[in-house]
Write a structure and sequence with these properties.
284 residues, alpha+beta, 2 domains, 7-stranded mixed sheet, 14 strands
């Protein structure tokens, strides 16, 4: 397992302002292009239209944890590596916490948390609403289709907000590998925490997108999903004082207890700069 690529967003997504409440709000604003223009008469006084205002968008925070409990006997028994089992389990628990954070960042579905029910944030999947297309099950993913997705985003946003990341199951990444005319295999990724080679595609729309095969994107027949994301429009926002941390608990018997815990949400500043397409053929 390679945490740096399997948990791409946990490692690379920017951090937004701290959430101050379990219901986290922020503002978004979109300036649309005109579809017609009425010119002004010479010497006319200015006329004033109602101005559009920024809108409030929200998400809820989710508590994600990974607990560790190791008995006194387990810590006393000699191990093959000589490593303290408690320290070993803490290391593995942190990996599992990051994997949980990654999955919910992509796939989280909102639950506001009624009494006795855990809150769950919306991930990318639930926050993208403008550019959403469900293809017929088994639809072929071609180079033309990839450019269609990117063009849909281009129609909705300015040139500064074009998608720069394709996140997809491995089978789609392998298909894109066959688009040899506009595909390169190496990128300059000094600012990215990447442990594997990442492909880049130069689209017909004029933007360059990085291709990330991801294990947490749906790959099942009928629901196989491809995301086109504008990476810097997404952030993680942690509830104040609730960034990932280890909490050691008092001994309550012949065992040691603790857990990694965090509380955070996903913030999307421009969902229309992203796209979600589903329904593709699951075979090469």
């Amino acid at each position: 397992m390679s945490p740096n690529t399997d948990n791409y967003f946990t490692s690379n997504l920017g951090k937004g302002p701290n959430a101050q409440n379990t219901l986290h709000e922020w503002t978004t604003y979109n300036t649309g292009r005109p579809t017609s223009v009425t010119t002004a008469i010479e010497g006319a006084a200015a006329s004033y239209d109602d101005l559009s205002q920024p809108t409030r968008t929200y998400n809820v925070t989710s508590i994600v944890n990974e607990a560790v409990r190791v008995s006194g006997t387990e810590r006393a028994v000699a191990t093959a590596t000589g490593e303290d089992p408690y320290a070993f389990q803490k290391t593995e628990a942190l990996k599992r916490l990051k994997a949980k954070m990654e999955w919910i960042t992509i796939n989280g579905t909102q639950d506001t948390g009624a009494s006795g029910v855990a809150r769950q944030m919306r991930g990318f999947d639930g926050m993208i609403s403008t550019n959403v297309v469900a293809r017929d099950s088994g639809y072929s993913f071609t180079e033309a289709e990839l450019n269609n997705i990117l063009e849909d985003v281009w129609v909705e946003v300015g040139s500064d907000y074009l998608s720069d990341l394709i996140v997809c199951p491995m089978v789609i990444s392998r298909r894109i590998s066959g688009f040899t005319a506009n595909l390169t295999r190496n990128i300059e990724a000094k600012e990215k925490r990447l442990a594997a080679q990442i492909r880049v595609y130069d689209s017909q729309i004029g933007n360059t997108v990085m291709i990330i095969p991801h294990k947490d994107v749906r790959a099942c027949a009928g629901s196989l999903t491809v995301y086109a994301l504008k990476e810097d429009t997404w952030k993680h926002a942690f509830l104040t004082g609730r960034e990932p941390q280890w909490d050691e608990y008092a001994k309550d018997g012949d065992r040691d207890n603790g857990q990694y815990l965090t509380e955070f949400t996903v913030v999307g500043y421009a969902q229309r700069a992203n796209a979600k397409y589903t329904g593709y053929n699951t075979a090469l």
